[in-house]
Amino acid sequence: MSTAVLINLRSRRGSSSLARTVREHLPDSPLGLTSTLAEAKAFLAGLRTGEHAPDLILSGGGDGTAVSLLNAFERGSLPTIGLVPLGTGNGWARSTRSPSFGRAIRRVARHRGGPWPKRTFGLVEVEGVLSPWAGTGWDAEILADYQRLMHALPNGATRMAGGFPGYMASLFGLTVPRMTFSSRTQVKLTNLGADALAIDASGKVVRVDDGGPGAVLYEGPLSVCGCGTIEELGLGFRAFPFARTRPDRMATRIYGDSAVRAARSVRKLWRGSHTLPHDAHWLLDACRMEFDRPVHFEIGGDIVGTRTTVDYRLARERATLLDWSRLAA
Q1: Where are the CATH 2.60.200.40 domain residues in the chain?
Q2: What is the pTM of this model?
Q3: How far apart are CA 33 and CA 54, in angstroms?
């Protein structure tokens, strides 16, 4: 059994000093310290192939790092990935109960023989990119504001103000005030796949009447919308609480309440409480969202520009991730 380790030096907790921990406990494992996507791809391309290829790649970074790593491989040959949280949100890593970097490296080093304990996750495909989630709305706006806030801080202050405190400062100091006084974006959700399923007020899965291909499932204002196959987007925000209800579907959500009312319900929103006013959940395998203006759009925690139309589908591929809770046992 062999392991390779990739560390994104641009992630919030990424540092070349982490290499000492890897060298101490996994001295024979290939180690990539990367600052760009091109460097990460070069490292992965340089790994030995065939029967000597690593059977586990540890991804040290945030959700964006994991998504980049995932998409660096050919379809049908996706490796087993162990997510190690070094980013800001780390939503996908939290789903696998990932420990801190040092503990993760030591647990892997102690593993002796036998297959790695694994969990599989469905994936959303958007514009040819595989990801556990993608969407737009406040989260994209908050992320953009958060990045601007971090860039504006003096050197050294980002590690203290980053993460949850910075996210909350961006939310209430920048995003909510701006969204409160701006006009609402409108979205139209069209089903492009199998008959639509929805989550009713009691949390049960129900079939949508006349919800077949081409059906317009929603047309109105949006605050947050997107599709995902994991519950959390990071920092404990349960944006898709029904994401793993059906393995053959991706969770699709549109929350359309105002910024002021959402701010009053932020705890319930954060915990994924059901139900909330102007909040709708579907289980779909393909859909289209059309917006009445260009909106910031993010895939797996990274802003990828603005869009007026986005097609989502449940990918045929599934991600195989290291199950840290079972590895600990």
Answers
A1: 131-317
A2: 0.85
A3: 17
Q: How far apart are CA 101 and CA 313, in angstroms?
A: 33
Helix (H) or strand (E) holding 147: helix 138-152
* Tens place of pLDDT per residue across the chain (329 aa): 689 999 999 887 888 899 999 999 999 999 999 998 899 889 988 886 655 678 899 999 988 899 989 898 887 777 899 999 998 778 888 888 899 999 999 999 998 778 899 999 999 999 999 999 999 987 777 776 776 766 666 655 545 455 566 666 776 677 767 766 678 899 999 999 999 999 999 999 999 999 999 999 999 999 889 999 999 887 778 889 999 999 999 999 999 988 778 778 878 887 888 988 999 999 999 999 999 999 989 998 888 889 999 999 999 999 999 999 998 76
Name the nearest CA neighbour of 130 among 41, 291, 44, 250. Answer: 250
SS3 content of the chain, % helix, strand, coil (to 5): 30, 35, 35
Separation between Cα atoms, residue 34 and residue 8, nearest integer Å = 5
Q: What's the Cα-to-Cα distance from 247 to each of 96, 133, 251, 283, rounded to whole Å?
A: 17, 14, 10, 10
**Where along the chain do the CATH 3.40.50.10330 domains lie?**
3-116
Q: Which CATH class is domain 131-317?
A: mainly beta
Instruction: State how far Cα 277 lies from the chain centre.
Output: 25
Helix axes 63-71, 37-46, angle to 10 degrees: 50
- For residues 88 and 318, what is the distance between their CA atoms, to the nearest angstrom? 24
Q: Which CATH architecture has domain 3-116?
A: 3-Layer(aba) Sandwich (3.40)
- Euclidean distance between CA atoms 232 and 91, whole angstroms: 5
